[in-house]
Amino acid sequence: MVSAAHSTGAWLRRHRLHLILVLALMLRLGHLIGQDPLAAYAAGGDSRWYLLNGYALVTGFEQGQVTIPGLPGVEMPVILDHLPTPPVYLLLLGFWQALLPPAAAVRVLQLLQVGLSIATIYLAYRLARTLSGAERAGLITAGVLAVSPAFVIEPSLLVSETVYMFLVSAALSVYVPAFAAQPPPGTGWAKPLALAAVLLGLAALTRAPLLLFPVGLALHLLLACGWREGLKRAALLLVLYVLVVSTWTIYNRARWGRWVIGAEGLAAFVFIGATDWNGPEQVDENLAATTGSAVPRSTEDQQELYQQAAAQIIGSDLGGYFQRRVSDLAAAYLQPHGTLYYGGESLKDLLVTWLQTDQTPGGLLRLTQGDWFWPKLVIYGFHYSGLLFGLVGMWVSRRNWRATLPLAGLILYLTLVHLVLDALPRYLFPTLIFWWVFAGMALSRWWPRRKAAAP
User: Fold this and answer.
1) Burial of 24 by CB count in 10 Å (0-12 exposed, 13-18 middle, 19+ buried)?
2) Is the N or the C terminus of the chain less surrounded, counting Cβ atoms within 10 Å?
3) Prior bond to 183 cis, omega within 30?
4) Which residue has the higher pLDDT, 304 or 395?
């Protein structure tokens, strides 16, 4: 009996990671059961925009009302020569829609994203284990990402975050291990660095805000490897990265005679960040009110107008602009991604109302009767725990800065980018993977002490 129990315990210890990944897979597949795949084409959602523009890009439909065969009434105006987003995710969506009927294409895409989500959990496990040198840190990180509701929900949504998070995690999981040793090895660095550059290029062609992050990695190489060796490695990283990103630039120049680096919509995001997002119609009204002229139909002229309007607003009230951007960024961090999926009243707004008008135990208890209170509360718990323990993990791992700086640098970089661009919880959500890598490192140190102190 003792021997059997010992064997079972040993088997469980050996296969802990596999069990976590299987659990993650079951939760994500369970979330998909019962969902109508055609709901992704519903009007008003980002998924519909991605699907129809992706279909148009792959099938060569350049301008006008694009429709999906087999879905009467599902149409949207597209202008492919002025896409505001990079092409990688659009190409993925368009390929499967051109190959399969709409419902089957959506389901295949969701299943593919489930697979990428599981792969991302594994990559986060590897990063936490490599950086801490402890298996426990990797298992904590993987376990949390496996069951966190926001990460369970995300693969079912046809937006670019799942693919983007996989590509960035894969790039850093290749890049970081070389710096876990002190000092970084002098040989064998070219292949992993080249692969990291290609993956970062694909990630930047999935979401444009990542565009300048490799410049930060180049500075990291100079700091970690010394001027001479670092310069050689930085040159390889940046040259390959630029070659990958330039494919979209060359395509736009050859096909439409335009220069595009990454994406064209950044000026609009700067303008939205200088004002407020209340839907596309309100953005057009704000643009017309600021410039005193009608919004031009040409997207190229619109981008120029966005730049002028943003400069006018920022220049007229620099203090107010900075205050607005800090407030929006703080709100994006305070509102966890995933809570909007459940709809209903905002848990944060309910709590603020209770603090301002009630402050009684009965009123606090009534908050639990709000729409989707408990699922939202769980998401809040995971979100704030990741931020809190992530900060602790950054502190306790500070001496291993050569290896941890790229992850902390990515979090800081994306935070600063969205201090300028529009900030939404969804845009900051990819950083939560790396917050939990640091949190896993912190909790792996705390758990043995707690266990030893137990009576």
Assistant:
1) buried
2) C
3) yes
4) 395
- For the record, the structure tokens of 445 come out as 């140190």
Residues in a beta bridge with 67: 75
pTM of this structure = 0.87
Average pLDDT of the chain?
A: 83
List of residues 6+ apart from 22 with CB closer than 8 A: none
- Tokens 């990741």 found at: 386
Contact 202, 88 (CB under 8 A): yes
Written as one letter, the residue type at 351 is L
Assess contact for 149 and 378: CB atoms under 8 A. yes
User: CA–CA separation, 403 vs 422, rounded Å?
Assistant: 30
What the block records as the tokens of 137 is 């840190």
297: confidence class by pLDDT, cuts 50, 70, 90 = very low
Report which of 260, 344, 271 is spatially closest to residue 302, judged by C-alpha positions.
271
CA dihedral 426→430→431→436, nearest 10 degrees, is 110
Residue length of the chain? 455
Strand partners, 79: 63
Distance CA 251, CA 246 (A): 8
Q: In the chain, what percentage of residues exceed pLDDT 90?
A: 49
